[in-house]
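Progress against Task 2.4 (sequence-to-structure conversion) is shown through the following example record, which the project officer requested during the mid-term review.
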Amino acid sequence: MTEVIGIDHIYIAASDLQRSESFYDQILLKVLGFRKNKFIIGGDPHIQYFNRYFGYVLRPARNSSEHDSYSPGLHHFCLRVDAIVDVIAVANQLRAAGIEASEAKLYSEYAPDYWATFFLTPMAFA
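C-alpha cells generated for the chain above:
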C-alpha cells in the first residue's frame, strides 16, 4: 500500500488577493524563507509560496461571504519547525514584521511538548 508522506500544497481563496499577497510576503517569504511564483489557472491569478516540502497557494475568492472557521472546511493551518528555539525565533520575527503573533510557549493541553505561536490572517482574507 502507498503511504502518504506529507502535504503537497494547500489552496486558500482570498477575498483581497493583493492584500493577502502583502501579508504572506511578510510571513512566508521574509520570516520563513519560502520562494514565490505566480501563474494563471482558468483565467484566475494564483500566487504560490513554496519550499521543498509543500506549497501554499492564494487564489481569488469567488464570493465575498465572511469566513467562519467553525463552518465545514478548513479550521486552521499549522506549520511545523524543528525545535523550540525555532518556534521562539519565528514568533519574534513575526512580531518584528508587524504581524500580531502570540508569545511562543508550551501548550501542554495539546501535547506534553507542544510549543506554538499563533496569529490570524486579517478577516479580509477569508
